[in-house]
Amino acid sequence: MSHGLVWKYGDNVNTDVIFPGRYTYQIMAPEEMAQHALEDLDPGFAARVKPGDVIVAGKNFGSGSSREQAATCLKAAGVQAVVARSFARIYFRNAINIGLPVLQSDAAVDALETGDHVDIDLARGEIRSARGIFRFLPLPSSVIGIIAAGGLIEYTKSKLAQEQE
Amino acid sequence: MGKTLTEKVLGRKAGKDVQAGEVVTVSPDYVLSHDNSAAIIKEFQKLGINKVKAPGKIVIVLDHIVPAADEKYAQNHKSIREFVAAQGIPNFFDINAGICHQVLPEQGFALPGTVIVGSDSHTPSYGALGAFAAGIGRTETACIWATDEIWLRVPETMRIDLSGRMSPGVFAKDLSLKLIGDHGAEMANYRAVEFAGPAAPDLSVGARLTLANMSAEMGAKNGYFAPDDKVFKWLEGRARGPYVAVSSDPDARYESVLACDLDGLEPQVACPHTVDNVKPVAAVAGKPVNQVLIGTCTNGRLEDLEAAAAIFKGRKVHASVRVLVIPASWEVYREALGSGALAVLVDAGCVILNSGCGPCLGAHEGLMAAGEVTLSTSNRNFRGRMGHRDSEIYLASPATAAATAVAGRIADPREFL
What we know:
The structure holds two protein chains of two kinds.
Chain A: E1 2-8, H1 15-18, H2 30-34, H3 45-48, E2 54-57, H4 69-76, E3 81-84, H5 89-98, E4 102-104, H6 106-111, E5 117-121, E6 126-129, E7 132-135, H7 141-149, H8 152-164
Parallel strand pairs in A: 1-2, 2-3, 3-4
Antiparallel strand pairs in A: 1-5, 5-6, 6-7
Helix pairs in contact in A: 4-5
Chain B: H1 5-14, E1 23-26, E2 30-33, H2 37-44, E3 58-61, H3 71-87, E4 91-93, H4 100-106, E5 115-118, E6 132-135, H5 138-147, E7 150-153, E8 157-163, H6 172-183, E9 192-196, H7 205-214, E10 222-225, H8 229-235, E11 256-261, E12 268-270, E13 278-280, H9 281-284, E14 291-294, H10 296-299, H11 302-312, E15 322-325, H12 330-339, H13 341-348, E16 351-352, E17 373-376, E18 392-395, H14 398-407
Parallel strand pairs in B: 2-3, 2-5, 3-4, 5-6, 8-9, 8-11, 9-10, 14-15, 14-17, 15-16, 17-18
Antiparallel strand pairs in B: 1-7, 12-13
């Protein structure tokens, strides 16, 4: 269980406003990516976000580019999870591959507002707040192994090591 | 029950009968990356192995910032060239080739029935030729370099039945914007989009590339046309090997079917800051612009440059507008030199840039200051994408772009035909 504050945004939050293209080939370090997280959507976010905070958004979060930094920058900024009505498909894969939980719950998106205190229990599949307890859709079985390993790099690394034995 | 093209292509790769909803592990025919290969190399190096598994399947095309705009970009390119040499990767295209999504079809990698994944969101473009092609991220690409496999969920399919005929001055770009405007930017999220119906075979290979490219802006995993004689003929002399073309069965199962009549379709413009904020050109005509961009993986092909040249012929770029033209590849560049289209564009006052992504992704070559407006033939108009967060991007066809460049404000291309 992990605690944080909600940052709420709307539908179609795209990868350009999460992590602008002007930095995509300039910045390689995740800590530096974090300083530009959501820069073109909410310029005050990067300076004020705290470890454990949660982004809550509407439909199609992460639409647009395949740039993985749009997931990495949020994770590096301390965001513990993104809760949305739906995710763009490449963003969904990227987030899982780098170990950022992406959770779907219409009820949580309807209820939660910026500044709310929430606790997320990934194991139980629950988001808890003063406004209620919300269940999120279980992640597909195909990705459970990747998350359990800590991301696709670790997952693949251990798989390759096993093959070599 | 019949099967869709996607089910057939992924099933053949998986070596079993598959249907939408299943998860399959497949070995792709090719895996694409571009300037982001520098970052992928860093991920690959974390995996604890020295050699990529299938160097012949890796295709790397430098296109995003070509030539390098500063030292960091130059270092990225250098590290990619060194990796390509060290790993013996045969399919490497340096800064004088073009945009990956034009180069892969032209160079015969993108073939009917193949599976191509790429670390670029517009990878679905190759569906224009009947391939299954989907975008992925950096980490995933690094892992495919190591393992030669990827898991994919077989997507449900949305079919779009096209009928009727587009009138002069109306293009595939207008059709794609109309669809996204009517149905929203997530109309096909996680799904395959099949462009079908009686009007589909009428569309040129270039028009199909535009539509398959724009399926990414519908949220689609892949977008495609059934390959036909037009495609087979286009691939003559290009295909790198034999291929097995497949199409959806007549009794295939579709999750949904949309009908779209091309008769009466008007030129469309996507307004800031989302691709689904679409209006007919008449609704935004008169809006002054500072810059016009003609090119990109969406609309930088010969037929696009010629559509623009037809309007620029005998006319000049308006004094208050800068026009950037970027042929999608060097093949297109040479064709447009030969056809005379480039001469018309230069005489009109357009700036011709090296084949590549140009300012589309906001890294170089024509970024905007606060308050400026660009009308672009590209595929995204998100806030801040081409410069300052308080600049604006409008999306339209090359013909609308040329008409706008001449008028100095957004204009209907049909008034210039």
